[in-house]
């Protein structure tokens, strides 16, 4: 019997017990030495447990021993598991940027970015985290001029000029634009996932959680 779509794409969070789509969660599996390993691409073999993709919820799962409960056995937790997930998400963003460059779905340099905005081909803007405010403001004005006073484009501002230059194989990347296409959209999705992970979870996930059973592994 073929599973229903909802059964294929949703899982229960180990901490909050919420039922969410896989894209909103982080999957964890056990390595052969019983250490907990994040499986961001959801491809590793074996049973998995799922945690809502928020850094503080991964920290709670580690601190409260929920991984052992979820896997129904003793496990070894790596130091700084939540930070390790963040680092892997950042690497995923930089890898996506590199793939978008190879696909021709990123342009860099103020003039090329301005042209992409004017032509309507830009689906996102990239600013180095250490970029001068002046350049960012000028491009914001370009966006408003072509998209209207309320117009805006998704922004990528998490990475330094050095990190962007390394990922894109170019020197001194300060400003860039993501262009329409699957690779450009992949960058936006990866960055949105990282941004969401680093945001604090506003719910009180402590209430009653310790008295509940761990989420089913899958």
Q: What is the name of the CATH architecture of the largest domain?
A: 2-Layer Sandwich
Structural class, please?
alpha+beta
Side by side, the strands of the main sheet go 6-9-7-8
Per DSSP, the total helix count is 8
Short structural description:
Helices cover 42% and strands 17% of the residues. It has 218 residues and is α+β, with helices and mostly antiparallel strands. The protein is elongated, with a radius of gyration of 20 Å.
Write the layout of secondary structure elements.
Blueprint (H helix, E strand, L loop, with lengths): L4 H5 E3 L6 E3 L3 E6 L5 E3 L9 E5 L2 H9 L2 H6 L9 H22 L3 E3 L1 H10 L2 E6 L5 H15 L7 E2 L4 H8 L6 E5 L2 H17 L20
Parallel strand pairs: 7-8
Antiparallel strand pairs: 1-2, 3-4, 3-5, 6-9, 7-9
Description:
The structure is a single chain. The chain has 218 residues and is of the alpha+beta class. The protein folds into 2 domains: 5-78, YlxR-like (Hypothetical Cytosolic Protein, Chain: A, 2-Layer Sandwich); 86-198, 60s Ribosomal Protein L30, Chain: A. The protein has helices spanning 5-9, 55-63, 66-71, 81-102, 110-119, 133-147, 161-168, 182-198, and strands at 10-12, 19-21, 25-30, 36-38, 48-52, 106-108, 122-127, 155-156, 175-179. The strands form 3 sheets. The protein has a 4-stranded mixed beta sheet with strand order 6-9-7-8, with helices on both faces. The two termini are 17 Å apart.
Structure characteristics:
218 residues, alpha+beta, Hypothetical Cytosolic Protein, Chain: A, 60s Ribosomal Protein L30, Chain: A, 2 domains, three-stranded antiparallel beta sheet, 8 helices, 9 strands, 42% helix, disordered N terminus
């Amino acid at each position: 019997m073929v599973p229903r779509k909802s059964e294929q794409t949703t899982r229960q969070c180990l901490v909050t017990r919420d039922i969410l789509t896989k894209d909103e969660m982080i999957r964890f599996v056990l390595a052969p030495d019983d250490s907990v390993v994040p499986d961001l691409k959801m491809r590793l073999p074996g049973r998995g447990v799922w945690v809502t993709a928020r850094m503080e919820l991964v920290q709670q799962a580690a601190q409260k021993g929920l991984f052992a409960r979820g896997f129904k056995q003793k496990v070894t937790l790596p130091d700084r598991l939540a930070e390790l997930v963040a680092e892997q998400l950042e690497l995923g963003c930089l890898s996506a940027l590199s793939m978008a460059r190879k696909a021709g779905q990123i342009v860099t340099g103020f003039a090329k970015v301005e042209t992409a905005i004017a032509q309507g081909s830009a689906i996102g803007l990239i600013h180095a985290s250490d970029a001068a405010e002046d350049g960012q403001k000028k491009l914001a004005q370009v966006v408003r001029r072509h998209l209207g006073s309320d117009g805006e484009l998704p922004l990528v501002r998490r990475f330094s000029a050095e990190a962007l230059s390394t990922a894109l194989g170019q020197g001194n990347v300060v400003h860039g634009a993501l262009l329409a296409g699957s690779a450009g959209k992949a960058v936006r999705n990866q960055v949105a996932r990282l941004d969401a992970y680093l945001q604090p979870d506003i719910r009180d996930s402590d209430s009653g959680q310790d008295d509940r059973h761990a989420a089913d592994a899958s």
